Amino acid sequence: MKSLIKLLTRVFIGAVFAVLPAAAFAQDAHLHFEHLNGLEAKAQNVVEVNVDGKILDLAKRVLAKQNDADAKKVGQAISGLQAIYVRAYTFEKDGEYDMSDIDQIRAQLRAPGWEKLANVRSKKNDQKVDVYTMFTGKDMSGVAVVVSSTKSIALINVIGPIDIDLLTELSGKMNIPQFDIENEKPKN
């Protein structure tokens, strides 16, 4: 009996050590904005939104109880969300923030698991837009958007699965932008 316990203990310890490296590389979609805290003192306008935990659960419950079918679909589309974080800073003059602040966010998005979906570059105001997604299997587990220009920074971090098909169905309704991805009609 003692040898069986020793064997089971060794197998358990071996399994724990086998799982630890995988857990260390496991990635979640949460971005770290802490190093941006100093920008608030320099910015003319600041927006900080943290929707998570009880507030997000409340929003989901309210949407689920609406009599409006579209509101219920929005609730369904976001039912798996864990958090939404937004940071936006507007500055009075060009160059009032250090681009390395944004580069630190972009560095986080080069970590395993994140995939760049789109990037847009404009010479006007040196504007840069990057959109990243993270998938866990076939499910989207996060989205990140980084927008920067000479006088502004905007960051959006959505954590959790989003039902893109439902959101596309709702496009053009309830202040959701119109998406004409698959419904585009041929021009005559």
Description:
This protein is α+β, with helices and mostly antiparallel strands. It has one domain (45-188). The chain has six helices and six strands, in the order H-H-E-H-H-E-H-E-E-E-E-H. The protein has helices at residues 2-25, 39-42, 53-64, 69-77, 99-108, 164-169, and strands at residues 45-52, 83-90, 114-122, 127-136, 139-148, 152-159. It has a six-stranded antiparallel β-sheet. Strand 3 and strand 4 form a beta hairpin. Helix 3 packs antiparallel against helix 4. The N and C termini lie far apart (82 Å).
Q: What are the SSEs and their pairings?
A:
Layout: H1 2-25, H2 39-42, E1 45-52, H3 53-64, H4 69-77, E2 83-90, H5 99-108, E3 114-122, E4 127-136, E5 139-148, E6 152-159, H6 164-169
Antiparallel strand pairs: 1-2, 2-6, 3-4, 4-5, 5-6
What attributes characterize this protein structure?
single chain; 188 residues; alpha+beta; six-stranded antiparallel β-sheet; 6 strands; disordered N terminus; disordered C terminus
% residues in beta strands? 25-35%
Q: How many separate domains?
A: 1
Low-confidence stretches: 1-26, 181-186
Give the overall silhouette.
globular
Number of helices: 6
Largest sheet: 6 strands, antiparallel
C-alpha termini separation? 82 Å
Q: Order of strands side by side in the largest beta sheet?
A: 1-2-6-5-4-3
What class, by secondary structure content? alpha+beta
Tell me the series of helices and strands, N- to C-terminal: HHEHHEHEEEEH
